[in-house]
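Reopening: structure tokens for the manganese (II) ion complex, inputs below.
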Amino acid sequence: MFQPNNGKFDMPALPYGMADLAPALSQETMLVHYGKHLQTYVNNLNAAIPGSAFEGKSLEEIVKTSDGGVFNNAGQILNHAMYFLQFKAPVMGNAPTGYIADIIARDFGSFENFQEEFQAKGAGLFGSGWVWLSATDNGKLVITQEGNAQNPITKDLKPLLTFDVWEHAYYIDYRNRRPDYLKALWGIVNWDVVNERYG
Ligand code: MN
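Re-run output (same inputs, fresh job):
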């Protein structure tokens, strides 16, 4: 749960340095994507909350109950917080560990099948949005495409992992090559975080 602090949402504190995700995500991408785009969503939401019905509400509650500009900014803060907090410095042969490894194999046949479907849905999303791995109420894994600022919590799913496919996420490092960007992100996923989200 992301809670406001003295009425304002803070930027999520990253457990790594801005240059640590290279070459998957360059320092320049991090400075623009995290430092500018996310900061703007945070500033916009913090400006919109005072005096509204959303004062004191968690970010998740705001995403579930708002629309228009409040929804767009709150959704993008939640999406980006989950995106940036799920990464770590690159590891060779990075792959799922723990319980999530078992249920990915159970529900998709193999990690490779899961990667293929996740990348295809990310590459195939038209326009701006997010590809998500989530769990249903009974723990089954599903991959969904969410447009713009949408998040699977509005469909009563539990979000576990997401790749941002807005052009601002990859244009500096990959230009128009969205599939190359998606493929590179597997090397920096922190599967401990995904396991924690599954619970
Ligand atoms: Mn983004």
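The CA atoms of residues 129 and 147 lie 4 Å apart. Residues 33, 37, 80, 164, 166, 168-169 surround manganese (II) ion (CB under 6 Å). Marking as resolved unless the reporter disagrees.
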